Amino acid sequence: MSNNKFTVTLEDSTADIINGLSDKSGIPAAKIIRNLLMLNSSDLYFFSVWFGRLEKGTDQYICGRHTLMNPGPGSLMKDARQYEANNGNKILIGTDALAIDPNCEGVLVVKTKNDDGKKEGN
Asked: pLDDT (tens digit, 9 = 90+) per residue, 46-65?
C-alpha cells in the first residue's frame, strides 16, 4: 500500500462509533476507517468513473456532486443509477458493461428507450 495520508474530521456520532469499535476490537481507529473505505472501494471506483465522465452543469453532475457532499443511506452507485434513470438511462456495471464496450472501464451508460418507446439492450 502506498503512503497516501489524509486527515479527516468525523461527525461526533461517527467518531463515537469508530472509537467504540476500536476500543472493543483493539484495532486502531485509522485501520477501521481504512477498512471501511476498502469495503466500499468498488462502489467508489465505479462512481468515480461515472462521475468523471459527466459534464458540469448537467442534472447528473449536480445530483452526483450532491451525493458526494451529502451521502445518504444508499450506495454511491445506487444514487448514480437513480440519477441516470431519471434521465431515461441505465448504468451497466462490470461484465454487463464490458460485454458491450470493452474499453468502458467497467461502467457504461445506455439509453433505456428508443425514440419509438421500445427498450434497448438489457
From this structure: 989 999 999 999 999 999 89
